[in-house]
Amino acid sequence: MTKKSKDLLVGYLFLAPALLLFLVFIAEPVIASLILSFTKYNVITPSKFIGLDNFKAFFEDDRLGLVYWNTLKFVLILTPLHVVLGLLLALAVQRKIAKGLKYFYRTVFYFPVLATSAAVATAWSFMFNKEFGILNYFLSLFGIEGIPWMQSPNWVYLAVAIYSFWKFIGNAFLYYFIGLQNIPETLYEAAEIDGAGKLQRFMNITLPMLSPMLFFVLVTTLIGTTQIFDEPYLITGGGPGDASRSVNMYIYEIAFQKHQMGYASTVSISLFLAILAITALQFGFSKKWVSYDQE
Amino acid sequence: MNGEAKMAGVLTTRGIRIHTRRRTMRGYVLDGFLLLLSFLMLAPFLWMISTSLRLPQDSFSLPPAIFPTAFNVENYGQVFKQVPFTNFILNSLEISLIIVVGHIFISSMAAFAFARITFPGRNLIFIIFLAGLMIPGQVTIIPQFILISKLGLVDTHWALILPALINPLGIFMIRQMMMTISSTYDEAAYMDGASRMWVFLRVILPMVFPAVAVTSVMTFIGNWNDFFRPLIFLNTFEKMTLPLGMTVLNGTFGSGNLSAILAGVTLSLIVPLLFYMFGQKYLVEGITAGGLKI
Predict the structure, then answer these.
(1) Size of interface A-B (CB pairs under 8 A)
(2) In this predicted model, what pLDDT tens digit does every residue of A151-170 receive, in sequence order?
């Protein structure tokens, strides 16, 4: 056997397990989703081709506008929350403070990311309780009485934002923290000798050097919040009414509670297209501000 | 640490010394703020642990406990007595660990093919894998559910393990690191008559340890915390994972005994805590080495 054909064989042998799993669990489902969106299927009886009926239903669905609007609200609240506050926290910890204290902050901010999500979310749902919740108790000490965290369509978003900050801020924080530590100190020394002020150094060294991390956090947070499910499902239950129901919760309801696999696929494809558009936009825009050539 | 000293402006010129003094004032404010925030971040944990030790009839009563006022360990016994809590923890551990090991093995083999072997179709397949990165879970979950139910694997751990073995992100991260290794390493080994498998296991894989470690840590966290898939695939209490089991625990005690629920929550923190102690070093190293260039 020649080296070329041997490389071909060995290459595909190394690739085989991943390729097989990719075809079965990613590629095939994507195609199947597209096909399903033209059918009526409840898993038990055979699927039936119904043409564009699901798409017609999609545009006539009253709840869809609301769940998309809710998801957009989650994206608009949670993305800046993590991207900006994570950075501010990292900058505050990445100062000249004791090493032990740095480790303490890193642990305190990051540990909730690891804490079993559903467990701590359950605990938080009790903390948000209007009557006996710990949050309202401490607020009442400051004269703020009875906030209806779960009963008001507006407060419910603040509740999710507070939980999301507590649970996930450590993620953005850690990426920024590591990014900041990897900026060569010689850059700051040189800038200082040139007489650059604090703000100048931040704008001309810190931000550009950190831009790949910023971009990573931004894209992953955007994609993550667009698909938000656990937080509303476990804390707000989507309520009051549909006030905090996300698109993903709605897809779950259609597919796995009402067993309308066809229509659920149509909705999931619409969310996929939305995510694709946001991501493409981000990548297009990133060329203007993300700099990778730093070595 | 040196860099921060420089940033703080510890230089000898007069102007910068003034700068340092002003920064110290603001530094105190920031220190105070960070300490307060740390307390607020820890307070829910303190409340969870303290309340988990209260008597059931006091579990909802105010004022809430930040520090323990009672030591009713019986709540912890209730958690194991009323729901199969040991199963929840062991199932979660078993599933997460199998996924980590399988995923790392499959991903690093694919990464090796992409980074170190030249063959026709390689780049095309790599691009298709990258496109797979863009596909969100909820697009694939419905057909995956149909497939899994046709295979008769609903309500088995395989329903969670099999689809999680493939994640293009892991392949991508390990491949990126393999690309930085000079080809002289493999060539020297092949010259000595080494096989591809030997070079993969003994030469290349140890050199990309940071990428493998960070991928393992992230895979573990993701699957340990996964709630959506177990919710869809598992029905039997004994087979449930910890996140899904929490809803069972909540349903069992929700209206009567908050302390028992919080005992379960407290127990759920043990594995993440151990994992943080042993895994955070690799997480930091891996992110540092990988640079996460997307």
Answers:
(1) 276
(2) 999 999 999 999 999 999 99
B12 and B103, same structural domain? Answer: no
Lowest mean pLDDT among A1-10, A140-149, B96-105, B258-267: A1-10
ipTM of the complex: 0.89
Mark whether B39 and B80 lie in a shared domain: no
Closest residue, chain A, to B168 (C-alpha): A22
Q: Are A183 and A206 within 8 A, CB to CB?
A: yes
Q: Contact, A232 vs A160, CB < 8 A?
A: yes
Q: Which domain holds residue B21?
A: 2-44
Query: Are A8 and B119 an interchain contact pair (Cβ–Cβ within 8 Å)?
Result: yes
For residues B18 and B140, membership in a common domain is answered with no
> Is residue B32 domain-shared with residue B107, that is, in the same domain?
no
Question: Tell me, what DSSP letter sits at residue B61?
Answer: P
Residue of B nearest to A206 (CA): B7
All structural domains of chain A, each given as residue ranges with its CATH number in brackets, are 1-36 (no CATH), 52-286 (1.10.3720.10)
Q: What is the pTM of this model?
A: 0.88
Token pair of A161 as six digits: 């934002």
What's chain A's Rg over C-alpha atoms? 24
B86 and B34 in one domain?
A: no
Cα A230 to Cα A248: distance, rounded to the nearest angstrom: 9
At residue B17, the pLDDT reads 43
- The residue of B16, B18, B24, B41 whose CB has the most chain A CBs within 10 angstroms, and thus the best one to mutate to test that interface, is B41
Identify the residue whose tokens are 């995923």. B103
Instruction: Nearest by CB to B113, from A15, A43, A268: name it.
Output: A15
